[in-house]
Design brief:
By secondary structure, this protein is α/β, with parallel strands linked by helices. It has a single domain (3-224), classed as TIM Barrel. Helices cover 38% and strands 18% of the residues. The protein contains nine helices and eight strands. The chain has helices spanning 3-10, 27-36, 53-61, 96-113, 132-137, 147-159, 179-188, 202-210, 220-224; strands at 12-17, 41-44, 68-70, 84-90, 116-124, 164-168, 193-196, 215-218. It has an eight-stranded parallel β-barrel with strand order 1-2-3-4-5-6-7-8, surrounded by seven helices. Helix 4 links the parallel strand 4 and strand 5. Helix 6 packs parallel to helix 7 (179-188). The protein is globular.
């Protein structure tokens, strides 16, 4: 599909940055340490972002050669200066706004920008605590023990033509997506698998990768400890 999709397939580490936290965390240190750890991508966005996403993306691209990819929580989160966008459809939920509504609102703008688009099936997994994405999307996560439901949802996403599946425990999750669930999904789909949420240690990152995740996304873990991989 393009450079961003190739990086997702190759896999490794992706760093998630929230523009609203720019004044609270050392973005430069997070990016520098992530690059040293071999990060493949920078994801930008969140469930609720109030600061201009485009300004943040432009500043990031001036500081790094890593691809900068929008990780949108709504149709309002987009930057024509990004390298790509995960066009997320929350296929684990039944809220039509997050299945297709926001996509319709943003479609023309995204297409005209020429930014690389990766249609992605977004599957929310219970991480042991209510999360921002659960509240904002008004959807219930799949219980972490219901592997069969997660697998069937991922298969449905692939059959619908989506190009990647994203298993998400959510920002602030107490528990990461279980390795058993990651393994089960990996065995049943042929498209790239992204995993994020609740990953705060290098061991948790390795566990997700060893379970079959192409790309593992770390956000809060690096905010709390920029040298997590150092």
């Amino acid at each position: 599909m393009g450079i961003v999709y190739d990086e997702i397939i190759k896999g490794g580490l992706a760093i998630l940055l929230d523009p609203d936290k720019e004044s609270q965390v050392n973005v430069d240190a997070i990016v520098a340490n992530g690059q040293q750890a071999g990060a493949s991508l920078l994801l930008v966005g969140g469930s609720l972002v109030t600061k201009p996403l485009d300004d943040f993306v432009i500043n990031l691209r001036a500081k790094t050669s890593l691809p900068v990819v929008v990780f949108p929580g709504s149709a309002m989160q987009f930057s024509p200066n990004a390298d790509g966008i995960l066009f997320l459809s929350l296929i684990s939920g039944r809220n039509p706004e997050f299945l297709i509504g926001h996509h319709v609102a943003a479609a023309s703008m995204v297409k005209q920008s020429g930014v690389e688009v990766i249609p992605t099936g977004y599957i929310l997994i219970d991480g042991g605590a209510p999360t921002s994405v659960q509240y904002m999307s008004q959807t219930m996560p799949i219980p972490a023990t219901k592997t069969d439901i997660a697998v069937a949802t991922a298969i449905a996403g692939e059959l619908l033509g989506l190009k990647a599946i994203y298993l998400e425990a959510g920002s602030g999750a107490i528990k990461a997506v279980p390795a058993k669930l990651i393994e089960a999904v990996r065995k049943t789909i042929s498209i790239p698998l992204i995993v994020g949420g609740g990953i705060r240690t290098k061991q948790q990152y390795s566990d997700a990768r060893n379970a079959g995740a192409n790309l593992v996304v770390v956000g809060n873990g690096l905010e709390d400890n920029p040298k997590m991989f150092g």
